[in-house]
Write a structure and sequence with these properties.
Elements: E1 7-9, E2 16-18, E3 39-43, H1 47-59, E4 63-67, H2 70-80, E5 86-89
Parallel strand pairs: 3-4, 3-5
Antiparallel strand pairs: 1-2
Length: 97
């Protein structure tokens, strides 16, 4: 048995409410063709955070580089900094002051 609970956002209140009639739930519209040329460096010691962020950004059309620790992030940026448009990093990482 699969149990599904659908939530919808109430535009007036900003809150969320349960959808009683699932026939009202529609799939999200198809996205436009992804044409971004931006490169993003993700630096995070948590592999789940890196993986999820990478997938979301790649699905949005970005080229993503990922580093598993601060030193690797510094090294990648030192080698490829001119190619990187944005860095997303974990503020607190082991081994970095």
């Amino acid at each position: 048995m699969i149990l599904v609970q659908a939530m919808t956002r109430d535009r007036q209140s900003g809150g969320f409410g349960e959808v009683d009639d699932l026939s009202r739930v529609r799939p999200a519209p198809e996205h436009e063709e992804k044409t971004s040329t931006a490169t993003i460096l993700i630096v995070d010691d948590d592999p789940i955070v890196r993986s999820v962020a990478t997938h979301i950004l790649e699905d949005a059309g970005y080229l993503v580089m990922a580093a598993e620790d601060g030193q690797m992030g510094v090294d990648i940026y030192g080698e490829r900094g001119k190619d990187i448009d944005l860095v997303i990093l974990d503020y607190v990482m082991p081994g970095m002051d």
